Amino acid sequence: MHESLLDREGLVEDQRLRAMSELGQDYLKAGLLDRAEAVFSKLLDTPQHGQARTYLLEIFVQEKDWQKAIDAARLLEKDTSKPLNADIAHFYCELALLEAARGNPDVAASHLQQALSSNRLSVRANLMAGDLDAAAGRHEAAIADWRLVETQSAVHMALVVDRVLGSYRQLGRLNEGVQWLRALYARQPSHDVFGALYLAVSESDGAEAARQLAREELRRNPSLRTLDRLLEAELVNAEPDARELLQIEKSLVASHSQRMMRYQCGSCGFKAKQFFWRCPACGRWDSFDPERSEGEG
Ligand SMILES: [Zn+2]
Questions:
Q1: How far apart, in whole angstroms, are the C-alpha atoms of residue 284 and residue 271?
Q2: Is residue 264 helix, strand or coil?
Q3: pLDDT value at position 76?
């Protein structure tokens, strides 16, 4: 008799907590973040705490309250023993971004160090450390930061090559940059790395060298983007009567290729012109492919 009463009380309590959690989720979906936060905070001392912490983390991320997100993620890691160190590194990078925008590069740099302590494979931390160094005119240091990315994730060099070349240019050593880029391209051939190499070669070695490079690449790895570059290089030295047609071909290829070139989320398939560290559609961190693809649509 008593036992079944207790069972029923337990059941009622369980239902009440579930209803609270559902209410919190409704608030979250409606974008009423303050209300959602209040509901889930009340659930922290109940058996629903694991789920509540997951939602709280989501709320702090949406609110861009990165310090709270870091604290929540650490507690959630303890709760679930699911590692969140890569996400935490992003939260530190977000803090660094805010501090850099406020004109506090030293504080920003220390957040980037924290990001790397949380996740030594944080590409974004080295990328941003390079940005800070370059902004302060420390181009040697910036190049060193960016080149570290290759040791973390070689495919992410696609996001870095233009920056590295920019700093070599600032140092008046573009030739050295081109040499480095040629070697990188041999190790890590990709369309985006090729694009940077093509521009750098045409700048440092001239249109004929760039044309040779584009011809070789087109044979090895045919794509609209490479065809676009080849046509561009051929236009430079084209005879006047061939120019007009070449120009039409080039603009057709260019518009088609640019329309198709997109970064894509590997998790939900969302496509975008710009690269995101966190997918705006599914909310996942690090789900975007760092290289653009010439996909349909
Ligand atoms: Zn996604």
A1: 14
A2: strand
A3: 92
Residue 57 CA to ligand 1 center (angstroms) comes to 18
Distance 87 CA to ligand 1 centre (A): 15
| DSSP conformation letters of 40-71 | HHHGGGSTTHHHHHHHHHHHHHHHT-HHHHHH
Per-residue pLDDT of 82-116, as tens digits, reads 899 999 999 999 999 999 999 999 999 999 999 99
Number of domains in the chain: 1
Tell me, rounded to whole angstroms, the distance of Cα 282 from its chain centroid. 14
Q: Ligand 1 centre and the CA of 264: distance in Å?
A: 8
Instruction: State residue 297's pLDDT score.
Output: 44
Model-level pTM greater than 0.85? yes
CA of 96 to the centre of ligand 1 (A): 24
Ligand 1 centroid from CA 276, angstroms:
10
Measured in angstroms, how far is the CA atom of residue 37 from the centroid of ligand 1? 24
Q: Is residue 288 part of a domain?
A: no
What parts of the chain have a pLDDT lower than 70?
1-3, 5-6, 295-297
Question: What distance in angstroms lies between residue 123's CA and the mean position of ligand 1's atoms?
Answer: 19
In a domain, 162, yes or no: no
Its domain, for residue 25, covers 16-75
> What is the CATH number for 69?
1.25.40.10
Q: Are 70 and 91 in contact (CB under 8 A)?
A: yes
| Ligand 1 ion: Cβ-proximal residues, 5 Å cutoff | 265, 267-268, 270, 279, 281-282
